[in-house]
Amino acid sequence: MELIIYLLIGAIAGFSAGLFGVGGGLIIVPILYVVFTYLNYDPSAVMHMALGTSLATIIVTSISSLLAHQKNGAVIWSVVRNLAPGLVLGSFFGAGIADLLPGQWLQCLLGVFAIWVGWRMFKGSKAVVDPSKKLPAKSIQILAGGGIGIASAIFGIGGGSLTVPFLNKCGIVMQKAVGTSAACGLPIAIAGALGFMWFGQQATQNLPNTIGYIQIYAFFGISVMSFFTAKQGAKVAHLLSPAMLKKCFAGLLTVVGIYFLTKGINSFY
């Protein structure tokens, strides 16, 4: 029964990611949080498990996305190479930071982040790319990658919401920024998942079917289904208004953000 639930989550997450054109992390984390809570997992580990499992599933989806963007020549590999060391270290140690934070702090942080992303989408903000802008020195790119990696691990995402704006500000056009961001999602997801496995070993040793903070059945179920349903979501997206889709998803993210923010704040009292 539990595996069926995870397959359903994967179907929803994949379809939604394809429909709204975003990574599934901000969809997977809230659903997993609710499911893990319903299944009576240790409350102190539920939020961490949702984040770690989400990152693990992004490994699979980011490979699919990367291949699609590479086929269209939209990946700037020199930028990926410069960002990668920071992304890997940041994401791994970001998992360590998440391990140190109580669940209610993670809920508040994710709530604020979801509201911010929702606000950006609702505004329909399209970055105005200044072609005169250039990428900073390699050392600065590594530092930027570190910041993106840390935040991505704490939020359980592939980093697109952060990498794309950074690349836009550096004068990279949207198509290549999205493609390059998709490639950056793979090292973020791998390093972050390994971090949640490593740092979660002690905390989850009494929980069934887990390696660290990663729930094995959830990882397989979500990965398999999301891989197939993302394509269906993308097909449906072409039949609907992009502006309306963005506003609907912005509304969904705002509700999710308020839910986590309220839950996190209430747990302090």
TrEMBL record:
Keywords from the named record: Cell membrane, Membrane, Transmembrane, Transmembrane helix
Membrane-protein topology: Multi-pass membrane protein
Keyword Transport: no
Keyword Transmembrane helix: yes
Major subcellular location class: membrane
InterPro entries according to UniProt: TM_pro_TauE-like (IPR002781)
Pfam families assigned to the protein according to its UniProt record, in alphabetical order: TauE
Cellular component annotations (GO), alphabetically ordered: plasma membrane
Chain ranges passing through the membrane: 7-33, 45-67, 79-98, 104-122, 142-166, 178-199, 211-230, 236-261
Taxonomic superkingdom: Bacteria
Cell compartments where the protein resides: Cell membrane; Membrane
Family statement drawn from the similarity comment of this UniProt entry: Belongs to the 4-toluene sulfonate uptake permease (TSUP) (TC 2.A.102) family.
Protein name as catalogued: Probable membrane transporter protein
Organism annotation: Acinetobacter equi
